Amino acid sequence: MSEEKRGETFVMKGEARQSAPEAPITFSTFLIGLASSALIHLGEAPNPETGRSERDLILARQSLDLLGMLHDKTRGNLTSEEQQLFDNLLADLRLRFVEASKR
User: Fold this and answer.
1) Dihedrals φ, ψ of 3, to 5°?
2) Torsion over CA: 95, 99, 60, 39 (sign)
3) Which of 21, 36, 65, 73 could serve as a FRET partner for 86 with CA atoms 20 to 30 Å apart?
4) Are 39 and 51 in contact (CB under 8 A)?
């Protein structure tokens, strides 16, 4: 028998996943997740849903714009390690975008 669990804007059916407690997400892991999306859209990592590498420069640009906006909005509020990671990720992704745009 399936039990419904209601969220604010959706309904989840089935049982809650019973797994080991996950480590709390950090800002760095959040950034890496966003960067992973950009890499997938650049065609440099396979899409986890299809297993294929597919380039979509429009979505890659949107991911970069989102990261750029977040970079601006968090300026002065990050630890030095978080800031360095963010700066390096953004610079690397922007270079990859320029290279992908040339192909």
Assistant:
1) -105, 135
2) negative
3) 21
4) no
DSSP readout, 24-63?
PP-HHHHHHHHHHHHHHHTTSS--TTTS-----HHHHHHH
Q: How far apart are CA 68 and CA 19, in angstroms?
A: 35
Q: Which residue has the tokens 């966003």?
A: 34
* 54-97 tens-digit pLDDT: 999 999 999 999 999 999 999 999 999 999 999 999 999 999 99
Quote the CA–CA distance of 19 and 22 in Å, as a whole number. 8
Tell me what the pLDDT averaged over the chain comes to: 86
Residue 6: which H helix or E strand, with range?
Answer: strand 4-6
